[in-house]
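for ur thesis appendix - Tyrosine--tRNA ligase. copy paste whatever u need, i formatted it the way the template wanted (i think)
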Amino acid sequence: MKNFIPDSVSKFDNVYDVLKERGFIEQVTDEEAVRELLGKEKIKFYIGFDPTADCLHIGHFMQVIILMYMQKYGHTPVVLLGGGTGMVGDPSGRQDMRQMMTVNTIDDNCAAFKKLFDQFLDFDDEWKYEGNNGVYAPGHQNREPLPGKAISINNADWLRPLNYVEFVREVGTHFNVNNMLRADCYKQRIGDGLTFFELNYMLMQAYDFTVMARDFGLKMQFGGNDQWSNILAGKDLSRKWCGVDVEGMVFALLTNSEGKKMGKTQKGALWLSPERTSPYEFYQYWRNVGDADVNKCLRFLTFLPMEEVNRLSALEGAEINKAKEVLAYEVTKLVHGEEEARKAQEGARAAFGGGGDAANIPTTEMAAADFDGDGKGLVSLIKELGLVPSNGEGFRTIEQGGLSVNGEKVTNPKMNVTADLFKDGELLIQKGKKKFHKVVIK
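the 3d part is after this line
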């Protein structure tokens, strides 16, 4: 059993109260019924993940943490991989239609997702869903999942074999288009041109919920609060089409104090894979969050008891940096392991002059010949290292006094980096107050 969550995380025994205490819950279909259900029974519930990339990012991780809490308290997480819904793409919160992916890409991404889920959840991999061949041929599970284990399923199993005419006759007749267009998941797209292709997404997600409720006793669907309309559609369809009552619950998205989604970096999303976002960069992101965001991040992304969360986030002035160090260490430990978290912390402390191991600062090896003669343009170098996204941004950074080399501020945007600038074969570049990168010549 993966023991990420200590028993001391909460004084409550009902997972509903634990999630509420930490501020996750935004909306529930029936609060009293759901709290009673989660307190009295060990249920199957699901969260869906469309395979829009070959890696999970921090936005997904919020939902993974919910799965982990539910498993900790004895429930059965159903991880739904969107091999079917991913062929259309969720329009929620979008200003444009999602890029269409090939079936092979979708399947490869689903496989990559499952490997990442294996890091955080205990799965019963012998459990299987069998036999669904369309709306008139319900499927079934091969057996009940082992108690307390998660199960994984792919909605390609029932969405890809569908006969479209059968689907719109059996499912489409239960949807009122006027009501659909009032849903938040479509509002933003209507102004920009909602396609009929995207309009199908709500039907597909509602059908997912209904199929699993009908075929193996699923009781609830969870998701981010942008999924509320889709969850309500599934609850409604389950009742109308199959006579099954299910419930739904949605959670806060990870946003900063200004309401903007967290997890965006200069290089793009904050990925959970060390190949996409290094443990050091991952650590630094959380070390540098705004003071006003410390409490929320500690509540959502760590398993520290609420007393400790409140104590740390109440620190003021320079002391709040201690809370940010704890946050960064705890989240990095959870995603990348204790050793990588320690190395990232040591590297950050060394870079900021607070002691620690300078060997853990992000480092790039380059050929000594690159810096012979006139050397290499500094702006080109920092772009190559990923410190800036473009040459223009590099020039602006220098002109605004935001770049230092070996501790000295750079004033000439056309400066070249030559071999004589390296000290013992190393060059330390600092962008702003918090980004460091070491170049080593070989």
